[in-house]
Structures are given as C-alpha cells and as structure tokens.
Specification:
Length: 330
C-alpha cells in the first residue's frame, strides 16, 4: 500500500510539472544558484534575438529560474563567436545559447569548427519560416519573377542573406534558384549578421531582395514598405504575409523550416539537462508563449533534449545532401 501511495504522489508531481510554470517543480534536483547567461548568436533585433528575449522574459515572468539571468548578444562569424564562447565553458550549466539550423549548415560548409554534438541539446522551441521580400516599388512581383530575371541574367539583382554565406538563408535562396535553373555561382549574395541588418539594407535601397525571418518582414509588409514575393512554408501563411505565395505554388522547390532551439555546454549532468528542459517546456506550453507564437506565425514544434538530438542528427544528414548538391559542402 505504501508503494502505491508513493507512486500516486510521484505521478501527481509530474502532472503538476506539466501545467504549472514554477521553478519549485524543478527544485527536486539541480537548479542554478548564480547568474545565468542566455546567449543570442546574432545581433539585436533579429529573429534569434526575438526568440531569446521572449524565452527569457517569460521564464522571468513565471519565476522559473531562481537565480538572476541576462540575455547577451554575441554575434559574428556565422555564430562562431557565440558557440566558441559556449564551447569554452564546458560543464557549466549557467550558460545557454539560442540556436538554429545554422549550427548544422555552418559546420557542413566549414565555417564552424563545432556543431550540435559539441554541446548539450536542451530543446527545440518552434519553427519559423523564411520570407523573400522586395521594396514596394520593385518590378519583382513574385518569386517567379525573381527566378526568371536571374535565370536570364544571374548578376541582375543583389540578394541579402540574414546570416553568413553557406548558412540557412543561403540554403533558402539556393533551393528555389537551383530548381529554376539559375547559375547560383554568379548571383550577387550579400551576407549580414541578422535579419534586422538585412532589412535596413533592403529598405535603404542597398540590395534588391532579401531572405529573412517572417517576424521581422511582416510589419514592413503591413505598412506597405515591402512586398513579400515568396515564403518557405508548405502552405500560405496568414496575416500580413498571406499575399506571399509558397515556392511550390510558384512551381519551384523551396520549403524550408527554420527552427529555433536552445543548447547548453557540453558535459551537463542529466539533472541539469532535465532542469532546463523543464523550464523551456513550461515557457513554450504557456498561454503567453502560444499567443506570441500565433502573432509571429511560429509553429509550436517543441522537442525535448533526447528528441532534439535525434532530430538534429537526421537534419544534419539531409542538409549535407542538399548543400553538397548546391556546392556549399566542404
């Protein structure tokens, strides 16, 4: 009877953990006792920064982390600066980083000496799609126009990438252009550290087209300053970007899921990993996060530590195949 009662009590604790955003749930094991640094591997104002600051604000609001915590932007080198910093703090669970498919692509193309296997996977939080935009006065009306212009003259237009060459945004450009028979090696691609930097270049007339996070593009489409000419989702998006056709709709390949997640330092213990996985799960499954996700057209694709590692292993293989085809693999 005593064993049955203990089993019921334990089940109740785990049931509470699934619905209450409270750090007391995770206090059964390890919890941070000094300042936690959540790293954003890109500049302020970009899609990774938005994700990081949203997660941080909610874990603070829900009092999920008993210690102080800060968000620190460590941009540069196609995320090499951030991941290099994190890699030097192996075994310290007080340092986390927002991450994305760039941790895979920039390792495949040789820009990053480290990848997901050099860290502790904690959680995939969401999927964000990539939008292609031009200024409102541009003669390019849809992605089909873009492909056709570049097929005839690959140097006719410049395209801003919201990450380093060979990264996720490079792939989102490469897939439809390769599908459309464009000589990608001759296309003028300009790399930026974040979507906000790429946006500034597009709005200022320094580039003709940009590939970037939909959350940053959307307000400018809504204001009439930009036009969305294609999106990487498999079906049309809602809201301000509903006018943007999907690449398959235009007759080209181009579906690409730009996920966002969190990693920790290598060598974290199972208790430390479980703690952060629990915190992040509470954030993502909160009503506040769901409302924010809906507003920013994020898909809830939460995966815990073990599931994230399996997901990244599979995606690494898929991306390496695509990048080899595009000539981006080293």
């Amino acid at each position: 009877m005593m064993r049955q009662l203990l089993g019921v009590a334990a089940g109740a604790v785990f049931a509470i953990a699934g619905v209450l955003p409270s750090h007391t749930v995770y206090a059964q094991g390890w919890s941070p006792q000094r300042n936690v640094e959540l790293i954003v591997p890109a500049g302020a104002g970009g899609s990774l920064d938005t994700t990081g600051r949203t997660v941080h604000r909610l874990w603070d609001q829900f009092k999920l982390v008993p210690a102080t915590s800060t968000v620190v932007n460590r941009s540069g080198g196609g995320h090499a600066v951030a991941y290099g910093f994190l890699n030097q703090r192996a075994g310290d669970p007080h340092y986390l980083s927002i991450t994305s498919a760039t941790i895979l692509t920039n390792h495949i193309n040789g820009r990053l000496p480290v990848t997901y296997t050099d860290f502790t996977t904690l959680a995939v939080l969401l999927t964000e799609y990539v939008g292609f935009a031009v200024r409102a006065e541009s003669p390019i009306k849809t992605g089909k126009d873009l492909v056709e212009v570049l097929r005839k003259n690959p140097t006719a237009l410049s395209i801003a990438l919201s990450s380093a060459a060979g990264g996720t945004h490079h792939i989102t450009v490469g897939i439809p252009l390769q599908s459309g028979g464009v000589d990608i090696s001759k296309v003028k691609l300009v790399s930026f550290n974040s979507t906000s930097d790429a946006l500034a270049a597009l709005l200022g007339g320094h580039v003709d087209v940009m590939s970037g996070g939909t959350v940053q593009i959307s307000p400018h489409v809504e204001s009439g300053k930009l036009r969305v000419i294609a999106v990487t989702s498999s079906k049309r998006m809602t809201g301000a970007l509903a006018s943007g056709p999907t690449w398959p709709e235009l007759g080209y390949k181009g579906v690409f899921e730009n996920w966002r997640g969190v990693i920790g330092t290598k060598g974290m213990t199972p208790q430390q990993t479980a703690y952060w996985e629990g915190v992040l799960s509470s954030v993502v499954h909160s009503d506040e996060f769901k409302k924010y996700a809906e507003k920013n057209q994020w898909d809830d694709t939460f995966k815990g530590s073990a599931e994230m590692r399996k997901f990244l292993e599979a995606q690494y293989g898929e991306l390496k195949s695509v990048m080899t085809f595009l000539g981006l693999s080293k």
